[in-house]
Amino acid sequence: MPELPEVETVRRGLQPAMEGFRIDRAVAHRENLRFPLQKDFAARLTGQTVTGLGRRAKYLLADLSSGDVLLMHLGMSGSFRVIGADGETTPGEFHYPRSEDRTHDHVVFEMASGARVVFNDPRRFGFMKVFPRSEIETEPHLKGLGPEPLGNAFDASLLAKACAGKQTSLKAALLDQRVVAGLGNIYVCEALFRAHLSPKRKASTLANRKEEPTDHAVRLTEAIREVLGEAIKAGGSSLRDHRQTSGELGYFQHAFKVYDREGKPCPTCGGTVQRFVQNGRSTFWCPKCQK
DNA sequence: AATAGCCCCTGACCGC
DNA sequence: TGCGGTCAGGGGCTAT
């Protein structure tokens, strides 16, 4: 599924079922997702209480009473279902409907809350890993991640520094998780549109010679925070709508201004939204508005 | 070191 | 209906 807003929505949806509850039983229905699951994966989870459920970039991090951390990534198609006494929910449903195919239910947590938390992932680009909390700084998946775009540390000056001297495109730079963590293809397109910046522009143009932020960097920083904030809000509200009508699309897609809107009118200038391929991935933009 | 491209995998959709 | 090609929210690895 996910970029930052979807992962955050999933986190909030899982919290009531997991946080503060013991994992009575963990079951892995196959020995690998994207990577092989550790041999002791289920054993290290069973009997542990989830003391907190956090997020870093597009990763979910469940703190366990044992001192381990359960790291979870949804890849492209991963989703969770929470099956409780009062029915079934899917936190973080988004642009594409989640898989209904039970053959892709790969991992199940039976919580002491009575809820079953099921991880489903048809493409298996997602993965899970358990490691000691003490290794959080050296964990390869987390090491080198850039700042959280909604965190206090992230500002135009940080973004400018990270992009200074970069010869690659602004689009590619923003997708690089070392520059800023949590953006994906959708929100990069949307943020660039809101900032009126071309995806083809060199990343280095966010900084001047002293590596100080240009106006572009200021605009882009604001656009990133704004679009992520709005998307998280929409994720929250689409959750409620969604309990009734399973199988429909999410909510924030209606707020897309350029993503997935090739050939449709630009909401700002009335021109036409264009699509082209950049580093192997679709970029959607309005050439008239974005310079 | 920085950058671009390939690849992992399944399913949906489109044109023939 | 069936078949092949294309595309999809990510990111690790490898070759320049």
3D structure, described in words:
This protein is of the alpha+beta class and 291 residues long. The chain has two domains: 4-135, MutM-like, N-terminal (N-terminal domain of MutM-like DNA repair proteins, Alpha-Beta Barrel), CATH 3.20.190; 156-285, Helicase, Ruva Protein, domain 3, CATH 1.10.8.50. Helices cover 25% and strands 21% of the residues. It is built from six helices and eleven strands. It has a five-stranded antiparallel beta sheet with strand order 1-7-8-5-6. A four-stranded antiparallel beta sheet has the order 2-3-4-9. Helix 1 packs across helix 6 (215-244). The radius of gyration is 20 Å and the shape is globular. The two termini are 30 Å apart. The chain binds a DNA duplex (16 and 16 nucleotides) through residues 1-3, 6, 34, 58, 73-77, 94-96, 99, 101, 104, 121-126, 141, 166-168, 172, 175, 177, 184-187, 279-282.
Reported CATH architecture of the largest domain:
Alpha-Beta Barrel
Radius of gyration from the CA trace? 20 Å
Number of helices: 6
Number of strands: 11
First-last Cα distance: 30 Å
What percent of residues are in strands?
15-25%
Family: Belongs to the FPG family.
Keywords: DNA damage, DNA repair, DNA-binding, Glycosidase, Hydrolase, Lyase, Metal-binding, Multifunctional enzyme, Zinc, Zinc-finger
Cofactor: Zn(2+)
EC number: 3.2.2.23, 4.2.99.18
